[in-house]
Amino acid sequence: MTALIRLHDSIFDRLEAAFGPTLLPLLARFTFAATLLVYFWKSGLTKLGDGFAGLFSPSLGAYAQIFPKAMEAAGYDPSQLGTFHTLVVLAGTYAEFILPLLIVIGFATRLAALGMIGFVVVQSLTDLFGHGGIEHAETLGAWFDKTPDSLILDQRLFWMVVLITLVIKGAGPLSVDRFLSNR
Q1: Count of domains for the chain
Q2: Angle 64-67-73 (CA atoms, 0-180°, nearest 5)?
Q3: DSSP readout, 85-134?
Q4: What's the pLDDT score for residue 155?
Q5: Alpha-carbon span 49 to 19, nearest angstrom
Q6: pTM of this prediction?
Q7: Distance, CA of 153 to CA of 140 (rounded, Å)
Q8: Which residues of the chain have pLDDT under 70?
């Protein structure tokens, strides 16, 4: 039995040493790009106003997505909300474009992944409490059940594992981070 354990350890220690520092971060960034990049960019596009000025003047939908209860109380008139609301909406919109791009190209990856973790936490809380998802068991979901596709607990756990991997491991060798550190 000891020989079998040593053989196992020998094989998998070599695999981890050879591919762990390079393959895991690359796969995490690929997974993020393949599954979440377009999701966040499309979401960000819904928050932009019309034309070039829309970069600085968010759409009505942006306020409704980020501050659903405040917008309802204001009669869906964003001019009734304050500067704080506008700044939060702009920051959230820009984050949906900038942070995913940084992760995909591997630049400031650990900080970008931390930013995305914060973004996903706020997004999840807004979905649950602002949009009423907490009242629908299928939206919240449950871990250790037979259904792996709830919007919040199941899907966002996978997102977090990818992002936490990038926080811990960094971007890996095929990244702007590595290129700059080698210079």
Answers
A1: 1
A2: 85
A3: HHHHHHHHHHHHHHHHHHHHHTSSHHHHHHHHHHHHHHHHHIIIIIS-GG
A4: 93
A5: 45
A6: 0.88
A7: 6
A8: none
What tokens does 58 get? 């968010």
Structure tokens at 155: 């899907």
What span, in angstroms and rounded, lies between the C-alpha atoms of 154 and 85? 30
What is the per-residue pLDDT for 83? 92
d(CA 104, CA 100): 6
Distance CA 76, CA 61 (A): 9
Asked if residue 139 is part of any domain, the answer here is: no
Range of the domain at 84: 22-119+155-182
CA distance 74 to 69: 9
Would residue 114 count as lying in a domain?
A: yes
Residue pair 172/110 in contact (Cβ under 8 Å)? The answer is no
DSSP assignments along 55-77, one per residue: GTS--HHHHHHHSHHHHHHTTT-
Q: Which structure tokens are listed for 109?
A: 């990856």
79-103: per-residue pLDDT in tens? 899 999 999 999 999 999 999 999 9
